[in-house]
Design goal:
homodimer, 425 residues, alpha/beta, 6-stranded mixed beta sheet, 5-stranded parallel beta sheet, 10 helices, 24% strand, globular
Chain lengths: 425, 425
């Protein structure tokens, strides 16, 4: 029996994955707990929602990633709490002991308490979310095509709430899907009536990006026909549309929420100070105050940047945090002092459609248009986990680019038991 | 306004697709009605169920197939009945007139009235079926891995009912998935305990194949460790296993039903003689008796071969039938007599795993082993609709072959509203 220290990593997103892969090199036993058996490559989720990629293309089985490390075990399950005093995580009825704990459980969509969001808006945080949205958008076009009446106002209108990277990328991809594919698919529909509206509370898109990129994104989206509404507050989502501050009501068959997240519900079980969106306050070395053996990374942590401002909830922060806590665990285990975490911003990117992207690189470099798009393609293929996924995504992208096609515009029934054994005729 | 004849095609599987593509060349208006917006390539469904291919790889959007033909319209919907006298198909509340009708609605899984099949067995007829089965098999391994008790008998046992091509192909692929992938994924489980059992009522596998192929399939499966039970009758499926005739009870966590189908429930609304499995009796030209303007093809028709025996319910019969009725509609429309349908058997194929397949070619040629497998690969890539699908499937196959990997072993939640906006923590 090994008496090596046991490290439990909760979550296998960007943060947990990078922590676990570094920890595997240490003389410790690592257990990774995740509610899903795959690592999702979330930056490409909007492409699954807009029929550019298949759902399996951005998922990679975690047992396949960790299989080559004899000291990493995988456990499928949802961690519901942490007993900090007993040093154990709680998975339903079971408790699992740890010597060191890495909390990397991420965030969930949050409706900020706005009326109707949870009931009527589509979040876009998981692969099932993306498939549900794809099914819904394609189904509204099918329903409009079958409709023999004069039609309902807003039948082909999609309202996206939130002008961050997900909202911007989704708006661009959706505008292209409609113009380039659905207009041809539905020749008997007046697809020019289809509208994509992007609602953003602040006076700019892409918070955290350079002003040049924000402006380029805005102009590109407007050129693609997206109705971008800046400084606009959503007050309510209903079954058939949204209400905006000032009294404007907009009919829409689809409302997508990308405006906000909050920390994984797991955070609620941990009695420490909470930051923005329910995140856990951490020390400079990313450990939990008073619990030097517990580290928190990624969207779950309210870390702070050099000026004390909160760190953005982006993949790079999670990746760097994961690597950093693995180093800190090695140091603590060796009896050395841990080191504070410093986030290095390697840049931000968002694609706005075919041959259009914005990229802010370190040193104030800014790319946009075709060059930005090539940079975006390269970086995303590079970071995509799994060689097969890289090839398949590359083939899909080459196909989409050369043919203007979106080949996965397939409505897959999600219903649990639907159509198992139909009644005999 | 056009006064051209209107042809309605119900279903866009192999039969409906081939009928519609031929009808598109005639001076008629064609409407294709399908409950799904995609054409599924069912011969590869078992590969989706065993994590070899992604669900989107075997689906092709029908609007993309028909988009280049101005005289084909697509309508998404379920045909619930046909008013033969009024010449109209019924889609819910709506009626659609036809001058000629092609019924190609296919078949559904049928439990043959065996107790517990509908409640506890997994059918494998649709893409959601395949995803449900993939999720279930992977989840049983995950659950066994988390189980701290001594385990439940049969936890890793899969029983497949029916020794036709689907049962044989699934058995071979599943045995390889377990041996080559899951054994490595679950190092702490004794995966050698995992069993694949194939139950067949008759004394041979692959009915309709040559005796050489039947024997080769049996030997190959047994060499892969599949427990093949010939001349064995299933009497009941329960929550935790199956009962076989003679009193044997077999514990199993997964029971898959590939033993029987019956005609689409639509057939029940049509007042003509019914053949095997509720199929519709047809004239020699594939028209409905007394209704020369209505044709029935594929799994929905009880056609007869040269000796009067029923035609097999396979893709080739549907494809040839579809082309034939398009020609007969052209002849009838031109005032000529229709021609009787003669099925040309171009051979049968089944793959049993890596470099193992059987193929019966015309003229009594039989291929097996690696050569049979190469033939199988070529034919299936050739017939797969959509150039993108061909490339992506080829990449996946090359990947699977070279790495022994099965990259889509991903458990995707199917639940309708699961995880939309989780409760705040």
């Amino acid at each position: 029996m090994s008496v090596r220290a046991r490290v439990v990593v909760v979550g296998s997103g960007f943060g947990g994955l990078n922590a676990a892969l570094r920890l595997a090199r240490l003389p410790v036993e690592v257990t990774v707990i995740d509610r899903d058996n795959y690592h999702g490559f979330w930056p490409l989720l909007y492409q699954v929602a807009t029929a550019g990629l298949g759902s399996d293309d951005i998922a990679h089985p975690i047992r396949s990633i960790y299989g080559r490390f004899p000291n990493i075990a995988v456990r499928l399950g949802t961690v519901t709490g942490v007993d900090l005093d007993a040093k154990a995580v709680v998975i339903g009825e079971e408790r699992m002991h740890y010597d060191y704990l890495v909390l990397a459980a991420g965030s969930s969509a949050s409706d900020f308490g706005i009326e109707g969001v949870a009931e009527h808006a589509f979040p876009l945080k998981t692969i099932p979310d993306a498939l549900r949205l794809r099914n819904h958008i394609l189904s509204t076009f099918e329903a409009a095509d079958s409709d023999r009446s004069d039609g309902t106002p807003g039948t082909l209108t999609t309202v996206l709430i939130g002008g961050g990277p997900t909202g911007v990328e989704l708006a661009g991809a959706l505008a292209e899907l409609i113009e380039r594919n659905l207009a041809g698919d539905f020749r008997h529909l007046d697809v020019s009536e289809a509208r994509v509206v992007l609602v953003e509370l602040s006076d700019h898109l892409l918070p955290g990006f350079s002003e040049h990129s924000q402006q380029a994104a805005l102009e590109t989206l407007r050129r693609k026909g997206v109705d971008v509404r800046l400084e606009t507050r959503l007050t309510r989502v209903g079954e058939r549309g949204v209400d905006l501050e000032g009294g404007e009501r907009m009919d829409a068959s689809t409302v997508v929420w990308t405006a906000g997240v909050r920390a994984n519900p797991l955070a609620g079980s941990i009695p420490v100070e909470r930051g923005r969106g329910g995140t856990l306050a951490v020390e400079a070395d990313l450990s939990l105050p008073g619990h030097p053996e517990v580290f928190v990374i990624g969207d779950l942590a309210s870390g702070s940047g050099p000026g004390g401002e909160p760190l953005p909830q982006v993949a790079q922060v999670a990746i760097q945090g994961g690597k950093h806590v693995a180093r800190n665990i090695a140091r603590r285990h060796a009896g050395k002092r841990t080191r504070p975490f410093h986030y290095h911003n390697h840049g931000s990117m968002a694609t706005i459609g075919r041959r259009a992207a914005v990229a802010d690189l370190p040193g104030g470099f800014v790319l946009s248009g075709t060059v930005g798009w090539m940079a975006w393609l390269t970086v995303h293929l590079w970071f995509l986990v799994g060689f097969r996924n890289r090839i398949v995504v590359f083939v899909n992208w080459a196909w989409n680019y050369l043919t203007w096609d979106r080949a996965t515009r397939v409505i897959l029934a999600q219903g649990g038991d639907a159509r198992r054994f139909p009644p005999t005729g």
